[in-house]
């Protein structure tokens, strides 16, 4: 039987209920091993959980919390990356066993690999929709294939998953070449900010089952300053939510994550924004009409 974490997501508004009766399973993963600029992502999950108690049950459109939110105890992030990824995998599978939508709170972006392995094990092929300032398509970074800068390379090269990238705006040459090699579809921040929401966001042959990974640095630093590598020129709040809703429309959202929040003491805006983003994506999942 799953034990619920004492610091529950939105505990101020959502009563506790058994794991098998909750549509959303929140899984904190305080993992930080390969950050390349500012640190602090290991504190991200706890900051999001604490900020979530300041949310309201109504997300502006519906009441996703009424379908139940169960919060797992944080994943043990000690030891080698392979062991951490396997623990993330097992936590996601436990949520899926309950018929829930796994909602993973990071932690650095590399942890997304464990989620994708679990989803591929359970569902086979699915599509990945990535919100991010960076492409994360390096084969390795600073000597590690487990780097947060390599997680999407693992998705397309190792797991052979189709990928759509949203809001990217800083690259190395290797990443641009990897996009071409692996057929990655990209709507970069300059194009989105200048031209608006594309009429057709995902390719016609993109899988019905999708997974969203949301690195908070995909948002503009004016609204999300507390992140490991903030990059100017990012997505606005409603622009990001409109993109997420369009990606999910007519498809089945298997799960999602929110990663790379790096909270700073005395600076609560980003914590609350990340918690709001988490709940907003729950609402988008609820209104998709699929489970």
Automatic annotation (TrEMBL):
Q: What is its EC number?
A: 3.5.3.11
Task: Indicate which residues the UniProt annotation says bind Mn(2+).
Answer: 109, 132, 134, 136, 215, 217
Alphabetical keyword list: Hydrolase, Manganese, Metal-binding
Instruction: Identify the enzyme class.
Output: hydrolase
Gene Ontology terms: biological process: putrescine biosynthetic process from arginine, via agmatine
| A GO molecular function held by the record | metal ion binding
| Cofactor(s) required, per the database record | Mn(2+)
Task: Name any one Pfam family assigned in the record.
Answer: Arginase
Q: Which PROSITE patterns match?
A: ARGINASE_2 (PS51409)
The record's annotation in InterPro entries points to: Agmatinase-rel (IPR005925), Ureohydrolase (IPR006035), Ureohydrolase_dom_sf (IPR023696)
Q: How is the cofactor bound?
A: Binds 2 manganese ions per subunit.
- Read off the Gene3D superfamilies from this record: Ureohydrolase domain
Give the record's family classification.
Belongs to the arginase family. Agmatinase subfamily.
Q: What is the official name of this protein in its record?
A: Agmatinase
Organism, scientific name = Mailhella massiliensis
């Amino acid at each position: 039987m799953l034990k619920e974490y004492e610091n529950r997501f939105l505990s101020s508004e959502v009563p506790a209920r058994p794991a098998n009766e909750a549509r959303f399973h929140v899984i904190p993963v305080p993992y930080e091993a390969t950050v390349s600029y500012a640190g602090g992502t290991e504190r991200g999950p706890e900051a999001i959980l604490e900020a979530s108690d300041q949310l309201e049950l109504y997300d502006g459109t519906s009441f996703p919390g009424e379908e139940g939110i169960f919060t797992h105890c944080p994943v043990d992030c000690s030891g080698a990356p392979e062991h951490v990824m396997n623990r993330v995998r097992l936590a996601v599978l436990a949520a899926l066993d309950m018929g829930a939508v796994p909602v993973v709170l990071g932690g650095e972006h590399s942890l997304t690999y464990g989620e994708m392995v679990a989803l591929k094990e359970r569902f086979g092929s699915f599509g990945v929709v990535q919100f991010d300032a960076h492409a994360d398509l390096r084969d390795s970074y600073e000597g590690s294939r487990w780097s947060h800068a390599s997680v999407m390379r693992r998705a397309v090269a190792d797991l052979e998953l189709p990928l759509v990238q949203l809001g990217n705006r800083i690259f190395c040459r290797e990443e641009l070449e990897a996009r071409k090699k692996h057929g990655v579809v990209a709507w970069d921040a300059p194009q989105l900010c200048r031209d608006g929401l594309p009429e057709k966001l995902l390719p016609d042959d993109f899988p019905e089952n999708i997974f969203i990974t949301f690195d908070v640095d995909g948002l503009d630093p004016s609204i999300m300053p507390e992140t490991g590598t903030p990059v100017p020129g990012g997505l606005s709040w409603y622009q990001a939510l409109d993109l997420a809703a369009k990606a999910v429309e007519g498809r089945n959202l298997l799960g999602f994550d929110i990663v790379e929040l790096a909270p700073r003491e005395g600076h609560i805006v980003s914590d609350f924004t990340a918690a709001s983003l988490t709940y907003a994506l729950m609402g988008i999942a609820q209104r998709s009409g699929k489970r």
